[in-house]
């Protein structure tokens, strides 16, 4: 067993190539055992990066040399060889290793990530810093072909090619994003991959040159010649045109070839682009056969009861049905066709479905363009990823008051993906934009009605946001119907305190009211439905009647729903005690959704406790919770 002896990348350097190959096998077995069998997590991407990781750590001296992984969902092998082997079984669990890279987790994690397409920019920054400080280290960005569809990657390539600093970009090309990779550039990569004329000629030239004295030097010089050859074969080579020296395609599972390539590349002074061909799911046949399905593994709890339908499935099916009648509806995803529940739509209405790649900014402005022509674009984007497109939301959609529907998935605390993926800023970042309407459903049935509301709303942009995972299990009866804009729902009346909740916190608020009732406290419970416009009449009536208010949201309190209620009270000069429950001013790490909601104090028991504390403090009574 070699893996047991690898406590840092230094230990790799003592191994021979056959030993490294054996180690690769052990790493694969560990990932299959732990991720597919115990913890769940990103699976096929990590099986594809094993040899790449070993070769990089063999050739470069991390942490002095900087290896920057894009997204970080494919960096489990990197974790295993950088001193975290013993904690690997805790990955994505509460208190355990993160599923992505975090600077505080290891000195080998050069840059925290979770969102795609940042690696080249960050690595370029490091390379430039090295130059400015007169420090000598190598900087390597490892980016997938999916992440390479993100605009930021091109902004960085554009900058790097002109700066001509030493920067190595390794493209981990497995022909897959989460779903099959899309776009003209994916087709271009595929042409390079399948064009064997250049690869064969290159291999032959390299073989001959290696035989010459000072073979490596000749090899380096030959790359100038090979550039010409490439241009003949491919007409133009985009990476070379951008100022990079191109190496590849190399077999991303051949450790010897990878090591030789990286050793060569190390000697080149300007920007270099290494194109490695990998297989997503490599070494585990079901994952190789269906890498889409095996992007992530989830572990089923034996004997668990069947879950209610997921919010995203209800969303996708409802939109598919609405689009049968309403030919204006167009669905857009930024590389998350499955996660957003849009696969049924893609199947039923292929001409009105657009996967634009990891390109949230483009997705939003593309939607704006569609809206100018009278269509009803629905941009289904995870709340956390819509952060990428903030200016597009303001500049391209809201200023022009275009009727774009934002279906913000994975709102609230998402669970095991952790701090980079929680969708908790959306109320705050959207609420301040003029023209925007914002809704959040209390359950999966209300989601259907909100979607219909959004589609029917002609007056401007409208957003609905809903959580990751299963709904609450309510029946989905009848056709979806529009809800009145800006109207909340009074769920129960009580005179001691008003609990005003939004979205996924409404049900816990109702449970909290039941707990309070047992202690003799009568609560009003309101499902606000709209963060903007607020149902001011309903909220003010309940606030004046009870004199005590608790707001609840699964989002940042600062700037969020609670803040909106406080602004209303300030404007109305209503001076009553208000407790705003929601996320405080800090980032939350990875854990189960239930645990995170408890930590944030937005589960039923916590809401009841806070409401009771308010009643005790301001009513001078001492009801007790049982
Ligand atoms: C800005 C952003 N949008 C969407 C995602 C979701 N996402 C995570 S990994 C991934 C696919 C990445 O593909 P690639 O870089 O080729 O890596 P692979 O999984 O194929 O190894 C996507 C779309 C993300 N992390 N960040
Ligand atoms: C790395 C990444 O961003 C995605 O793979 C993400 O983890 C998917 O999350 P869901 O499982 O919620 O779709
Ligand atoms: Mg890929």
Automatic annotation (TrEMBL):
Keywords: Isoprene biosynthesis, Magnesium, Metal-binding, Thiamine biosynthesis, Thiamine pyrophosphate, Transferase
Pathway the protein acts in: Metabolic intermediate biosynthesis; 1-deoxy-D-xylulose 5-phosphate biosynthesis; 1-deoxy-D-xylulose 5-phosphate from D-glyceraldehyde 3-phosphate and pyruvate: step 1/1
Keyword Transferase attributed: yes
A Gene Ontology BP annotation from the UniProt entry: thiamine biosynthetic process
Pfam families: DXP_synthase_N, Transket_pyr, Transketolase_C
Annotated residues for binding of thiamine diphosphate: 73, 114-116, 146-147, 174, 284, 360
Cofactor note: Binds 1 Mg(2+) ion per subunit. Binds 1 thiamine pyrophosphate per subunit.
Reactions catalysed, as given in the entry: D-glyceraldehyde 3-phosphate + pyruvate + H(+) = 1-deoxy-D-xylulose 5-phosphate + CO2
Cofactors: Mg(2+); thiamine diphosphate
PROSITE patterns in the cross-refs: TRANSKETOLASE_1
Entry GO terms, CC: cytosol
Gene3D superfamilies: 3.40.50.920, 3.40.50.970
Protein EC: 2.2.1.7
NCBIfam families linked: dxs, PRK05444.2-2
Quaternary assembly: Homodimer.
Protein name, per record: 1-deoxy-D-xylulose-5-phosphate synthase
Organism: Thermalbibacter longus
Name of encoding gene: dxs
């Amino acid at each position: 067993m070699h893996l047991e002896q690898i406590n840092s990348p230094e230990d790799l350097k003592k191994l021979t190539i056959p030993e490294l190959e054996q180690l690769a096998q052990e790493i694969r077995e560990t990932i299959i055992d732990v991720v597919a069998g115990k913890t769940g997590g990103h699976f096929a991407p990590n099986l594809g990066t094993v040899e790449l990781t070993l070769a990089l750590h063999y050739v470069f001296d991390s942490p002095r040399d900087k290896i920057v992984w894009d997204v970080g969902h494919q960096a489990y092998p990197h974790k295993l060889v950088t001193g975290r082997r013993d904690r690997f079984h805790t990955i994505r669990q509460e208190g355990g290793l993160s599923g992505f890279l975090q600077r505080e987790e290891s000195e080998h994690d050069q840059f925290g990530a979770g969102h795609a397409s940042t690696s080249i920019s960050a690595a370029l920054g490091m390379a430039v810093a090295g130059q400015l400080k007169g420090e000598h280290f190598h900087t390597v960005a490892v980016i997938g072909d999916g992440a390479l569809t993100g605009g930021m990657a091109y902004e960085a390539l554009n900058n790097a090619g002109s700066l001509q600093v030493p920067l190595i970009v390794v493209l981990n090309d497995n022909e897959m994003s989460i779903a099959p990779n899309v776009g003209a550039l994916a087709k271009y990569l595929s042409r390079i991959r399948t064009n064997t004329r250049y690869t064969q000629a290159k291999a032959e030239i390299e073989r001959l040159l290696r035989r010459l004295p000072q073979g490596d030097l000749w090899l380096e010089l030959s790359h100038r010649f090979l550039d010409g050859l490439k241009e003949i074969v491919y007409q133009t080579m985009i990476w070379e045109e951008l100022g990079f020296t191109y190496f590849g395609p190399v077999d991303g599972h051949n450790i010897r070839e990878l090591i030789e390539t990286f050793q060569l590349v190390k000697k080149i002074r300007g920007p270099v682009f290494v194109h490695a061909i990998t297989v997503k799911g490599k070494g585990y046949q079901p994952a190789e056969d269906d890498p889409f399905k095996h992007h992530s593994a989830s572990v089923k709890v034996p004997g668990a009861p069947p879950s209610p339908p997921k919010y995203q499935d209800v969303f996708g099916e409802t939109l598919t049905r609405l689009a049968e009648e309403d030919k204006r509806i167009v669905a857009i995803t930024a590389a998350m066709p499955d996660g957003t529940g849009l696969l049924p739509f893609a199947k039923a209405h292929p001409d009105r479905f657009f996967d634009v790649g990891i390109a949230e900014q483009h997705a939003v402005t593309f939607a704006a363009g569609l809206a100018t022509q009278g269509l009803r674009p629905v941009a289904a984007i995870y709340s956390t990823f819509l952060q990428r497109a903030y200016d597009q939301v303001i500049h391209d959609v809201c200023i022009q008051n275009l009727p774009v529907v934002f279906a913000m998935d994975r709102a609230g605390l998402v669970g095991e993906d952790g701090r980079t993926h929680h969708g908790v800023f959306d109320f705050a970042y959207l609420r301040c934009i003029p023209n925007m309407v914002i809704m959040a459903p209390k359950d999966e049935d209300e989601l259907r009605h909100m979607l219909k509301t959004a589609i029917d709303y002609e007056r401007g942009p409208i957003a609905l946001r809903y959580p990751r995972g299963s709904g609450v299990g309510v029946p989905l009866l009848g056709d979806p119907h529009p809800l009145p804009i800006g109207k909340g729902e009074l769920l129960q009346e009580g005179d001691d305190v008003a609990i005003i909740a939004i979205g996924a916190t409404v049900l816990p608020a109702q449970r909290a009211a039941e707990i309070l009732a047992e202690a003799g406290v009568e609560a009003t419970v309101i499902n606000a439905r709209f963060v903007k416009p607020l149902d001011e009449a309903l909220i003010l009536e309940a606030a004046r009647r009870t004199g005590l208010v608790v707001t609840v949201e699964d989002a940042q309190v600062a700037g969020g729903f609670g803040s909106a209620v406080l602004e209303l009270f300030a404007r109305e000069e209503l001076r009553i005690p208000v407790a705003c429950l929601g996320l405080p001013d800090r980032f939350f790490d990875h854990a189960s959704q239930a645990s995170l909601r408890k930590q944030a104090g937005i589960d039923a028991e916590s809401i009841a406790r806070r409401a009771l504390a308010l009643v005790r403090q301001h009513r001078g009574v001492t009801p007790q919770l049982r």
